[in-house]
């Protein structure tokens, strides 16, 4: 696969044309205030896993609409004092999976929480959180569910779940709420950016090849799903383009990134046709924190850095979590 997007020198100065809604902040303030009228009701049930190096808890908390959302909370075995916390969000179609697949950050000495994504998990990993909210006609996938109205859009529920997930993880006595980082890959990276824009006191974030960024460019540049789901929807509903663009503008990672207050480690892959590098740089280039960096994988597609990115995160995150 050859390079298909802008060259790297152009990426570093690229600016997204995504237009932020005038009521963006009010929309999200209202959304989160509504969610917080429901008791968080975070429950942590110990799980026997056969693992001797970690302790695992099966978590349920109230997300958007008070709906139950699942997660895993994992700490090093024998932990008795609060530890810095890493909260992770997962990629498109995936679920929280099995707890023995979630050992990297507990092995590095941190408390760790992974959120299940409502309605997903059948693609890989396995999920345990249904989405009880339906929608009007949508193209198969998740990106066009409720796309007629920002208040009905699927990712309004997911991003709200993610904020509540951080609140739930922070409520555990073995988590140091004052030292919390958010990470995620692809869809998880897009959710990470949303959380960074909605929670002001994170100490670090790491969005890896993030999805859900720079919708105006992404939906017209690549013919890969999931972004192509929007084009396929509009291929049928030909007169809804303006309506769809308005909805997506409330969920664009570029606008959340512009509100980020924590140090950030991004990544992009120059052959990535799923989340094109210009869409990632569209978010990175407006991220305001002076402590920001981006790992660039020149000859990789959407797999990005994989273990190399985890190595970079393991070098970059701990000093910021333990400072």
What proportion strand? 15-25%
Q: How many helical elements? A: 11
Main sheet makeup: 9 strands, mixed
Low-confidence stretches: none
First-residue to last-residue Cα separation: 42 Å
- Give the tally of β-strands: 9
Classification by helices and strands? alpha/beta
Oligomer: single chain
Strands of the biggest beta sheet: in what spatial order? Answer: 1-2-3-5-4-6-7-8-9
Task: Provide the helix percentage.
Answer: 25-40%
What is the radius of gyration computed over CA atoms, rounded to a whole number of angstroms? Answer: 19 Å
List keywords for this structure.
globular; 11 helices; alpha/beta; 323 residues; nine-stranded mixed beta sheet
Explain the overall architecture.
The chain has 323 residues and is α/β, with parallel strands linked by helices. It is 32% helix and 20% strand. A nine-stranded mixed β-sheet has the order 1-2-3-5-4-6-7-8-9, sandwiched between helices. It is globular. The chain starts with 7 loop residues before the first helix and ends with a helix.
Task: Write the topology of this structure.
Layout: H1 8-11, H2 24-35, E1 43-47, E2 54-62, E3 68-76, E4 83-89, H3 104-107, E5 111-115, H4 154-170, E6 175-185, H5 187-198, E7 204-208, H6 215-221, H7 228-236, H8 241-249, H9 253-257, E8 264-269, H10 277-284, E9 292-297, H11 307-322
Parallel strand pairs: 4-5, 4-6, 6-7, 7-8, 8-9
Antiparallel strand pairs: 1-2, 2-3, 3-5
């Amino acid at each position: 696969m050859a390079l298909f997007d802008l060259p790297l020198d152009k990426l570093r100065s690229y600016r997204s044309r995504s237009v932020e809604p005038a009521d963006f902040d009010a929309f999200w303030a209202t959304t989160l205030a509504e969610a917080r009228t429901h008791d968080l009701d975070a429950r942590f049930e110990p799980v026997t896993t056969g693992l001797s190096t970690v302790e695992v808890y099966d978590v349920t908390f109230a997300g958007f609409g008070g709906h139950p959302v699942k997660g895993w909370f994992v700490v090093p075995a024998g932990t008795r004092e609060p530890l810095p916390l890493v909260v992770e969000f997962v990629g498109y179609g995936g679920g929280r999976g099995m707890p023995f697949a979630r050992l990297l950050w507990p092995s590095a000495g941190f408390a760790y929480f992974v959120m299940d994504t409502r309605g997903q998990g059948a693609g890989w990993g396995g999920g345990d959180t249904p989405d009880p909210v339906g929608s009007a006609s949508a193209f198969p996938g998740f990106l066009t569910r409720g796309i007629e109205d920002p208040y009905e859009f699927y990712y309004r529920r997911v991003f709200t779940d993610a904020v509540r997930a951080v609140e739930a993880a922070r409520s555990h006595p073995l988590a140091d709420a004052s030292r919390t980082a958010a990470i995620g890959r692809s869809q998880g990276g897009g959710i990470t950016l949303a959380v960074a824009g909605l929670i002001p006191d994170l100490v670090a974030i790491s969005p890896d090849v993030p999805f859900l960024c720079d919708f105006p460019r992404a939906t017209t540049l690549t013919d890969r799903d999931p972004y192509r789901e929007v084009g396929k929807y509009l291929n049928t509903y030909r007169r809804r383009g303006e309506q769809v663009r308005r909805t997506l503008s409330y969920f664009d990672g570029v606008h959340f990134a512009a509100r980020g207050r924590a140090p950030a480690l991004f990544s992009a892959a120059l052959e990535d046709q799923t989340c094109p590098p210009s869409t990632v740089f569209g978010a990175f280039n407006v991220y305001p924190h002076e402590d920001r960096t981006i790992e660039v994988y020149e000859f990789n597609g959407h797999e990005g850095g994989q273990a190399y990115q985890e190595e970079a995160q393991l070098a970059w995150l701990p000093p910021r979590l333990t400072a």
